[in-house]
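Q: What does the predicted 3D structure of Response regulator transcription factor look like?
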Amino acid sequence: MNALLVDDSRLARTELRHLLRAFPEVQIVGEARHAGEARALLLQTQPDLLFLDIHMPGETGFELLASLEKAPHVVFTTAYDEYALRAFEVNALDYLLKPIQENRLAAALAKAQAKVAGAATAARGAASAPEEPALPPLTEQDQVFVKDGEQCWFVRLADIRLFEINGSYTQVYFDQHRPLIPRTLQHLEQRLDPRVFFRANRQQIINLKWVERIEPWFSNSLKIHLRGGPAVEVSRQQSVRFREMLSL
């Protein structure tokens, strides 16, 4: 299992590297002091696991994750405990408080190994399974059935302004409703009309026809305000694609 360490403190990186020596199944493929270095190393090394500090010069760990189209499994390492809830909202595997305890590190690595092994098994199964016919794309005028618990809706796609990851489900925004559906954004992206629905970041797909206003955001990215809310931060890479797609 390959791991990348991202922390602006050299001492913290050294301590973590020392702790990881007790786990021979983990190979450290690089270290980064800030988000810019981390972004380059992520592309270069393609690690399975990212040990990520939150407070760093320039971008925070959360901002780095929001800018990535694809991220490895993440374990946050920080001296602050107030960001734990937000960490799990972005699907982090674990949240380790400094100074890191070896038993907590072992638990985090066990979670990571289970995820990596599961992904490898799924990939082998997908390679050997016969291909299923692709479902036809949906237009904005199509109506879709949405069920959340005992409640059901039959809603036009044109009336849905946002799809957003919420844990292992996707939350659907239309009218005043916020039902959860057992679908991934990857599945939805394959079915939706790309001229209408835009993948803003790893966690959100927006309906372009619900855009109310756009403002420049950090690191040359964009922030899009939807009618009826909420505001959505577009990743740096997708901000470039958004400008190219909608410019004359």
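A (community wiki): The structure tokens above were generated from the sequence. The chain is about 30% helix and 30% strand. The mean pLDDT is 90.
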